[in-house]
Specification:
Blueprint (H helix, E strand, L loop, with lengths): L1 H26 L14 H7 L4 H7 L12 H7 L4 H18 L4 H23 L1 H12 L6 H13 L5 H25 L2 H7 L7 H14 L2 H5 L8 H10 L4 H28 L1 H8 L3 H16 L4 H20 L1 H5 L4 H8 L3 E9 L10 E10 L5 E4 L1 H4 L2 E7 L5 E10 L4 E6 L22 E6 L7 E11 L13 E4 L11 E3 L5 E8 L10 E5 H10 L7 E6 L1 H6 L6 E7 L4 H5 L6 E5 L2 E5 L3 E5 L2 E2 L3 H9 L6 E8 L2 E8 L2
Antiparallel strand pairs: 1-2, 1-4, 2-3, 3-6, 4-5, 5-6, 7-8, 7-10, 8-9, 9-12, 10-11, 11-12, 13-14, 14-17, 15-16, 17-18, 17-19, 19-20
Helix pairs in contact: 1-5, 1-16, 4-5, 6-7, 7-8, 7-9, 8-14, 9-13, 9-14, 14-15, 14-17, 15-19, 16-17
Amino acid sequence: MALTALVALGFGLRTYRSFVLLRSAYAMGAGDLSSVRPWMTLGYVAGTYHVSGTALARRLRLPPDIDPTTALVSLARAEGRSPFSHVREVQEAIAELRRLSPASSEGTGTSQDSLVAGEFLAALLAYGYPALGLTLFLGALGLHLPSALAMVVAGSLAAQGQMSWLGASTVGVSGSVLGDVAGYSLGRVLTQEFLERRGRWIGLTPERRARVERLFERWGALTVVLSRSLLSFLSPAVNVLAGAGRYSLRRFLPLDLAGRLIWTSAYLGLGYSLGVGIEAAADFLSSVSGLLISLAALAGLGFSIDWHPAAVRTAQRHALMVVLVVGSMIPAVASAATIAELFERVHRSVVVIRALEMDVPAEEGQAPSVSSVGSGVLISNDGKILTAAHLVHAASEISVEFWDGQRVRARVVSSAPGADVALLRAEGVPPGAVAARLADSDAARIGEQVFIIGAPYGLSHTLTVGHLSGRQKPGQTTAGLGHAEFLQTDAAINKGNSGGPMFDMAGEVLGIVSHIVSTSGGFEGLGFAVAANVARELVLERGAPWHGIDGLFLSDDLVRILNLPGPGVLVQRVVPDSPGARLGLRGGFVKATIGERTIILGGDVILEAQGVPIGEAPRLRDQLRRVGPGDTLSVTIMRDGRLQKLLTVLP
């Protein structure tokens, strides 16, 4: 256990220090300086980063005749300082020398390196996965590219919902491994004579080659894993020398993959923590613990045996076995996050929604309004928000309040009242907001723990916890909601929770809170959320249109009561400036109670659309799907006892 803790601590410290070097380099406007490391010599630093060796020695207060083969770590120890702080001083010295001689050939080379690094990072932001894969592939070959920073950026984008962390990790591992295999293949075709005489051409300096050879002598096959994790700066040299030494690809590849899994997970997790906070990253980084334990076990094995060829082969087999067995346990380790940790990760995706609806006028000329409060969840950083349709479908004004108290206006983009789900678009998203991911609700099992974050009675970001209690088919819970599957839960839901997210234990949105079933008016353990897959299909993929009409489908009994020629849709309210308002539809003006339901009478009754009767639902849906921007939409209505036809051209 002590050895495991030490290895984990050492790797975590190295990862943090790498990030600090990345941050300081880019703060100085020279991203390529993030690759300066203690093992480098003065001569290597001067040549690689295009500065004068004499000027660099003077800037570091060193004798002008100092041996250029002196390593930075040796200089630090001679001064009684930590190698890490000395590297940062070297970074500052190089940046200062560049500023003092911007027109020199040395400065030009440096600017070009920084430009290349910046271009690759810009490409990552613009093109996503392909740019990430290319950066890591070329970086694994030994090019001076910001591979580690690219992985950190990818982790941050994953935290913000702009990338999938699974996709980023897959691309990261596969791109790096392909680059490693390419370097290995290069080593297979190069001769030992070439490596001795021309190794510098591919970054294989005598010092680096000697160090790698010592590692192979000491650790054998484990050098491949170590050079991908704890000693990642040596990985290009290890690739080439492994190939040149005719090391078996069948042995090289599994160990290379194990090392790249550690490296990718660490930097991706670091970026994730920067995107959502250190606490939220704990769950993500826990997925690396299995590999760290494997590495510690292998390190202990290395100290306990004699490294003759037979022992090396045995250690290789044991190494692969431990990595595969412990790796298979990673999902179980990663799922052990607590509710508190999950809340910290996702709560910034939850918003409070305030909607203003036009009510029935009390007197002629008046236009009173009714306000309501609910919840929603941000699902993309461009402002897309899922919520309940009954909260916003007939709203004339909508505002969204984020976790930090900032309020912005929003509009309805898509709405499916029959499933009680709608999609909003906020006018802006504050920095630091986190977009939630939608789960595969079909894979959820009854009995799994879930939690809900919302604003019951206006108390924003209130957490309630329960279980997935059941699945209800369309039409089984509430009349009028016949187009969706609902997930039942015993997590407390009250007025104001409507539209809020129901999360699973992976921190993904399993459903959108819709309604409760109650005889008392309060929560009685029967809450319902529309399944995430239904929400995804209806308002994200199909884009169910929003017409701005609060309509009520008239059943056979209501058709007879209102003396209508056939089924129709009673227009109760029309949102100003909506497609329904532009069509010329009018809402009602008298409230009436029929049975146990209060409806608004006096408005238009839509009998046909595009010449198809409202009662012929399948044919009507088919006709409406064919209507697009620039087409004419026609409806036949009953108004004041007379049939009328209304026309409008869709924008």
